[in-house]
Fold Extracellular solute-binding protein family 3.
Amino acid sequence: MKTGSRIPRLFGAALVVALASSAGWAVAQNAKTLPSLSDTRVAPQQTEAASRRVVIRFLTDSDFPPFDFYDEDGVLIGFNVDLARAICLELNTSCDIKARPWDELFGGLKNGEADAVIAAHRVTPAALKDVEFTDRYFHTPGRFAGRKDSPKVEMTPSGLDGQRIAVARGTAHEAYLKAFFRDSPLVVFENADLAREALAGGKADFIFDDGISLAFWLNGTLSRQCCEMRGGPYLEPKFFGDGLAIAVPKNDPQIRLLLNKGLDRVRASGRFEELVQRYFPVRIY
């Protein structure tokens, strides 16, 4: 039985990193800055005790590029892998990173095989029954896209009044549109691929979709370079999740404090931004 959940599986590296949170569509549309994702204040005596670790053992997946995958030489690489190494470097600890099948990651954490799992897990109520999580290091937005030759309009409920919006059935994106874009006729399809084809073929004026997979489609051959992103990111947690984080055991609060400390230092050093630019060439905020 699969444990945890992660962002939709992709087959390329044209992805999106969104490093902000939003209280709703208006906040997301008008956000100008990207605040830190840190949400934990660590007392000095707590971090001192936690920092005595000599090695941090990570588990990750191996078939989810560009987060974690084997290169042509059989070396495990990816954003998650390099982020784990950067954290260890900032904490002056050794780093042990092993790959396991997705379904076995939380089991390995529970049986003591690892101290943490860094594999693009979503922070969900179901996952929180099994593990704890660090501060979020990644968010996945909803995004609008339109044809390049279509008129420029405000990507707001009033601006899209009467505009046909393609969306996949049963998704958070459909639910969001029904909640906030009630005056826009929805063109609902069985899956996102059909919705994207409808946009490309002129059967819809816009599409609202997962920003990561949408960016991959826009920059790939299937879109035939027909379309482009419109407006900004939508990051309402109620609809689009509470972000991605490193999973840690419930019975080891020190490792969570330590990894949060390492994440803070990686961001402050500029290394996090370097990794973002290396693995995610398409930046969408």
Observations:
- The chain has a mean pLDDT of 85.
